[in-house]
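WARN retry 2 of 3 for item q-0093 after timeout on previous attempt; input resubmitted unchanged.
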Amino acid sequence: MSLPAMGYILSLTYLWIKAAHIIFVIFWIAGLFLLPRYYIYHQESTPGSQEERRWIEREAKLRKIILTPAMILVWILGVTLATVGHFWDSGWLMAKLALVIGLSAYHGYMVGYGKRLARGERPVSGKALRLMNEIPGIVTAAIVILVVLKPF
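OK item q-0093 returned
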């Protein structure tokens, strides 16, 4: 299939791609809200206990079943939307992209932190985790403003 034909097909499915992008953004952000909360409960459990083992299992499932697949799909669908919509020269998209890169880095940090917790390390306090739990909400609000208002 030629590139112009592929572009035509993608433009016909633009709204479906956009809907899927929004759905997977919701899954990803919900997971990013939930994961630090799991870590807080995990840290408050007794090291080596059955409860701690259950938290480790829950965290791994959340990361593997929801968080990481959702993030990957958000990226694939978002790049597709930017390409089909010819938005690559938009200032708002570049700002959004910077924020999404930041959320992806946060995601990576949280995945790494969970692996450290599973090894018995607890380098961050519960209070710090509670503060980190606010990051996805603040960044998501900024992204929504950029996408809806397209201020530049």
